Amino acid sequence: MFYSSTQRKFWTFSSEEELRKLRCQTNQNILQRHEASGKDCSKLLTPDEELMVCQYYHNRLREFCVKFQPPMPKSVMASASSYFKRVYLQNSVMEHHPKIIMLTCVYMACKVEEFNVSIMQFVGNIRARSEERERAVDVILNNELQLLQLLNFHLTVHNPIRPLEGFLIDMKTRHRSADEVEKLRRFAEEYLDKSFLSDACLLFPPSQVALAALWHSGNNVGMDVLSYVHQCLSKNGDGADQSMLLSQIKKVQEVVGHVPQLDASLVEVAKSKLAAVGSLEVTHDSQGTKRRLGTDQQGKQAGKRKAKQAKSEQGDGGLLTLSSLE
Prior knowledge:
Structural class: mainly alpha
Number of helices: 15
Strand order of the largest sheet: 1-2
Largest sheet: 2 strands, antiparallel
């Protein structure tokens, strides 16, 4: 149950302002560490640039899940999205490169949501040469434990997919005909897809996100979903309870409706800065020895390869290439 879950206790926050402060503090921690070690801090990413990089790779995560073969259940994408967002609330992209974290989040979500694919099937969805895929296997498997630690071993994600299905069944039983209710499904599911790109999973219970999806869908098909909320969901017709619920639904709609559109040129600047800074992340190689990914020199090399990578990725159908994984 959501209300007794680690998601509610540790990963549900009171406002977008609280999320902003957490992300700014994470960025400040990196700045302070650099200053303490006497390093040049002028080229570090700002909080806004870190957020742009996260949003860019989160979009890539979604594209990867949508194009995945065999077709991936949406619950896997929902869990992977939540993992990714949780990681970068308290960790910087300058510590843990988002491409590595993104792939590991999706693979971890496949396991947790019992979507049975082998690691070779998984990396088979990455457009890359065979040696790059082997490297991807090594990196993903050896970063699983680190991801678990970054998530504080909280792997259960309560997403709005099941609540939406429950509301649709309840509406068919108590409110309208099955044919009428089914008209709501397409727009509601599209709304949930959009919600995964927002911070809704960090701010609201999944049932409220599902209700917001129903309300949005009802507006699109011309069906009064508000009457269902009044008649079937409010406790004993309590007006105060109804007002509070509707207020929460409107807040969900505000968050989901204001997912920022990324400026491609600004994203490229932020990615270039990340490549130049290099990742501070420590991972393990296939022999289990520690090594450092994305040192400053590797960052410079990645910057030189950037134009070639961009050209290659434009034609990859939304899948990832791994030429800058190290």
